[in-house]
Design brief:
α2 runs parallel beside α5, α3 crosses α4 and α4 packs antiparallel against α5. The chain is mainly α. The protein is 70% helix and 0% strand.
């Protein structure tokens, strides 16, 4: 799965971006976030997700979008998106792209435990 480099996370992020807020799409987003959570838990998965700067920016921007979109509709999806961000930020000091989220101008701010 990780042999092709950042292809797997990028495909999942693209899938997430293409989903809307309908219930069937929420299931797809939730499942995709579960896979990203599992990838972020392991060294090789984290390396693939944040090793390439373009992939790291895509991860940060997509997860910020997901958290913003679903913060009121689905607490479960919001929590999963924050979980991926927290896992990457807390275990990978080089994941400085989390600060990119604050620069996007979202009306909500990241919890202080997400930013290392």
């Amino acid at each position: 799965m990780l042999v092709d480099g950042p292809r797997c996370p990028l495909v999942l992020l693209d899938l997430i971006r293409r989903c809307n807020r309908s219930v069937p799409h929420m299931v797809v987003v939730s499942s995709s976030l579960d896979v990203l959570i599992n990838l972020a838990k392991y060294d090789r998965g984290r390396e693939v997700m944040i090793g390439d700067s373009a992939c790291a920016e895509s991860v940060a921007a997509t997860l910020a979008d997901v958290a913003g979109i679903y913060k009121e509709k689905s607490a479960d999806i919001f929590a999963r998106a924050c979980s991926v961000l927290w896992t990457l930020a807390s275990s990978s000091p080089e994941f400085t792209k989390v600060t990119y989220l604050c620069e996007l101008g979202y009306p909500w701010s990241l919890p202080s435990f997400i930013v290392p």
